[in-house]
Structures are given as C-alpha cells and as structure tokens.
Amino acid sequence: MDLERGPWKKDYYWVSHYQFLTETQTGLRLPEKVTFHDSTLRDGEQAPGVVFSPQDKIEIAKLLDAAGIQYIEAGFPIVSKADREAIEKIVELGLKARITCLCRARAEDIEMAAAIGVWGAILEVPVSQVRLKYQFGWEEDEVIEKFMAAAGMAREKGLVPYLFMIDSTRADLNFLEKLITKAVKEGVERVSIVDTAGCTTPRGMFYLAGKVREWVDVDLEVHSRLDWL
C-alpha cells in the first residue's frame, strides 16, 4: 500500500488509512474488561490556555484516584522543574493508582523518571511515515533500535516500560507489526496505540487494535483525541 496516495491523503489533510479498509466495516465488539490510564495532568495541559499549578495537579490526582482510575500519567518531568516536583509529590501521596510519566526514548528522561519514583515510563517514539520522513528524518530500524535501548534501560532502573507509538494511526502496518512483536519478545508488556492527530474513526481504531491483538498478547492501550466523539 502506498501511504502517500489514496483517499486518506489530500493537499489539505492526511488522515488514517485504516478506516478506509473493508475490514473496518464489520460490527464493533467491546472488550470484557477496560481500565483507564488518565493523561489529564500531561495531555490536558497541552490544551490552549490550560495551565495547572503543582497544587492543582496534586488535587486532580487525588480526585482521579478517588474516582477509581487505575493508572495516572502524572506529567512529563523533563519539561520543567515544576512538573518534576509535582510528579514527585504525587508519587509520595501513596495513591492506589499506579503513577506513570512520559519520557522520550533517551537516557536522561529515563534516569529522571527513575529518580522521581514513578511506576512506569511511557516511552514515546514516532511511527508514522509522515513523522519519520518529514519530521524526524529517522529510518524504521532506527526507531526500533532507539526504543529497545530505552526499554532495556527503563527495566534496569526498575520501571515498567510502555511502547507509546506517536501517530500510530498513520503508520505502515508491517512496520508496526515488526516494532511491536520485537518489543514484546524482549519483555515489553504494555503497548499504546496513539491517534496523535485525531485522524481516525472508532472503526479504524478498532481495526488497528484488532491487528495488534493478532500479533501479541499484552496490555493494550488506546490513546485518542475526542474529535470524533
């Protein structure tokens, strides 16, 4: 499939090709069990005009925990001292929820996450052709190499590593299979499909999640924008 030629890519948009496949026209099925990994404290602050103080983040974390949220992404500690200190204080609360933070697939990010004491490190890597070719200038094998090195370091530091795939819904399916199966073979137990640009539909996401389920047996997360809800 040529990802740069099709109804999913025009001069003014580039959306997910998965929602155009015939397989996505079948009925949707819900999983038996769903858990929540809330990203309000990190992703929510990326909305225009939204800024949380450290105390805001602590109070929001408490409310999320009281609501029964199982996993809380407390922030992106490498971004600022304030974010790092807020995450540390959230970890010290001893909440029932497991606390995670976002990291680039870089040593300094992972070392900081370990020092803060979070449970899991969400290791982000770009996976779509549009990101790799036009933004990062990375080859697919380079992505795999970077992620595997980061995941290995995270485990050595006592962190649970996540494979967080930026722009998953515009990625080549064969590349995703190669990356995910290698990561799981090497011990990664949590995978996140990410619709970064909000460019797929529930049926497109259902198809992609189903393919991941065919390849591996891991805890699978879906990280989506709400544009289509």
Strand content: 15-25%
- SS-derived structural category: alpha/beta
> What is the CATH topology classification name of the largest domain?
TIM Barrel
Mean pLDDT: 92
Distance between the ends: 28 Å
Number of helices: 7
Helix content: 25-40%
> How many structurally independent domains?
2
Brief synopsis:
The chain has helices at residues 54-66, 81-92, 107-116, 129-136, 140-156, 173-185, 202-215, and strands at residues 9-10, 13-14, 37-38, 71-73, 98-104, 120-126, 160-166, 190-195, 219-224.
Search tags:
two-stranded antiparallel sheet, globular, alpha/beta, 2 domains, single chain, 7 helices
Report on this model:
Strand 5, helix 3 and strand 6 (120-126) form a beta-alpha-beta unit. The strands form two sheets. A seven-stranded parallel β-sheet has the order 3-4-5-6-7-8-9. The protein is of the alpha/beta class. It is globular and about 50 Å long. It has helices at residues 54-66, 81-92, 107-116, 129-136, 140-156, 173-185, 202-215; strands at 9-10, 13-14, 37-38, 71-73, 98-104, 120-126, 160-166, 190-195, 219-224. The model has no long low-confidence stretch (mean pLDDT 92). Helix 1 runs parallel beside helix 2 (81-92), helix 5 (140-156) runs parallel beside helix 6 (173-185) and helix 6 (173-185) crosses helix 7.
